[in-house]
Amino acid sequence: MANLSLKGIEKIYPGNKTKSVENFNLEIENEEFIVLIGPSGCGKSTLLRMIAGLEEITSGELYIDGKLMNDVEPKDRDIAMVFQNYALYPHMTVYDNMAFALKLRNIDKDTIDKEVRRAAKVLNIEEYLERKPKALSGGQRQRVALGRAIVRKPKVFLMDEPLSNLDAKLRVQTRAEIIKMHEDLKTTFIYVTHDQTEAMTMGDRIVIMHDGIVQQVDTPQNLYNEPANIFVAGFIGSPQMNFINGKVIEKEGKFRFVNEDLYCDLLEKDIEIIKKNNMIGEDIVMGIRPEHIDIDYSENSPYSIPLKLEIIELLGSEGYLHFKTSSDQIVAKVNLEEKGIEKGDKKVLFELDKLYFFNPETTNRLV
Ligand code: ADP
Questions:
Q1: What are phi and psi of 307, to 5 degrees?
Q2: What Rg value do the Cα atoms of the chain yield, rounded?
């Protein structure tokens, strides 16, 4: 159990011109499950390694339970780290791999035995304790690596893409095990991934990073519903949010979003936001998620938008429809069960209460 306080943490690797992590601030509560996510190279691993003490903090302060940790040796930080490549000792049995850290601490044999068996039970690997790592599947090896971390009863668990070497089915299973492990152990977890499904299903809060800079820290639901900027809006959700360039203009007392392909009536709440931000008549980006677009099957809604359906991707009961426009492609995620659909000219409905507007210069969402 521990809380962490990260204050203005920065990292510049020797010889690099840019900061790999820039002014990172976060208060992590006891027992919280924090996920760090972002594209490759955004600084997630660097941040995790600084918390572990494997990488020097260039500037800023790291506190664990109120104690400054910047210059504390990794082994004295009471942290366990699990990597994507397991890093098990190949010549030792599963049992010895898990017992190793406790033996180093001169803990008595009975206690070690109890702790190893307890962890093995949590992770469902009791029957493999006498095997060597090479006689295990990838998923079993990763569970051993998790077990080795559990027995140490660390204050903080750090995990760096622990599931990325597993196949899809095992990934889902092991993901559920890690969630359960977090519930059982009541310990602070900090988990790095580039996979948004992992982030959304595991995190109490998610930290989205881009080029070393935090974009937003929030609950999974808030990141989806209230993205702070275009990067976050595009990063969370699959297929990603559609971004449509245009302007909001007034015509005969009505405010509409327009560009050369389409126009779209707006709700009062959006008009108010756009006015408040002085963006009437200015270049603006409208965002709408694919799941909030559908075909107007009745073809008589006054709000439907004519668009040309160019590509249909069928995925069982669901389908992705790609509409062509002169500049952007618009993707809809629709339920196609029992509905046949053909390419060509369609009428399309946007859920008007699900529109987002962004300033194209700052990329921030208008609020
Ligand atoms: P992520 O884990 O998000 O993929 P990293 O933390 O590994 O990103 O890397 C962040 C940035 O720091 C990248 O630009 C990367 O090239 C750079 N970097 C990482 N490790 C080193 C290193 N040991 N020396 C120099 N630059 C590094």
A1: -145, 160
A2: 25
Neighbours of 310 (CB within 10 A): 13
Residue 172's H or E segment, with its range, is helix 168-185
Closest C-alpha among 74, 46, 76 to residue 60: 46
Q: What are phi and psi of 291, to 5 degrees?
A: -75, -5
Q: How far apart are CA 291 and CA 270, in angstroms?
A: 19
**CB-ligand 1 contact for 56 (6 Å cutoff):** no
193 Cα–ligand 1 center, Å: 14
218-253 pLDDT, tens digit per residue, is: 999 999 999 999 999 999 999 999 999 999 999 888
Which residue's CA is minimally distant from atom 1 of ligand 1? 41
pLDDT tens column, 47-75: 999 999 999 999 999 999 999 999 999 98
Rounded distance, CA 155 to CA 163, Å? 22
**Which residue has tokens 């529109």?**
355
Report the distance separating Cα 17 and Cα 315, nearest Å.
45
Taking the chain, what is the end-to-end CA distance rounded to the nearest angstrom?
Answer: 37
- Nearest-CA residue for atom 23 of ligand 1: 13
User: Which of 138, 141, 118 shows the shortest CA–CA distance to 128?
Assistant: 141
Give the torsion sign (CA, 241, 43, 28, 32).
positive
d(CA 278, CA 341): 41
C-alpha distances in angstroms, 240 versus 39, 56, 199, 201, 357? 14, 36, 16, 18, 15
CA atoms within 13 A on the CB side of 268: 0
Residue 324 contacts residue 357 (beta carbons within 8 Å)? no
Query: What is the number of the ligand 1 atom nearest to the C-alpha of 38?
Result: 3
What the block records as the tokens of 352 is 């008007």
Mutate to test the pocket of ligand 1, among 11, 42, 45, 46 (most ligand atoms within 8 A of CB): 46
245-276 pLDDT, tens digit each: 999 999 888 899 999 999 999 999 999 999 99
Ligand 1 centre and the CA of 12: distance in Å? 10
Do 119 and 97 contact (CB within 8 A), yes or no?
A: no
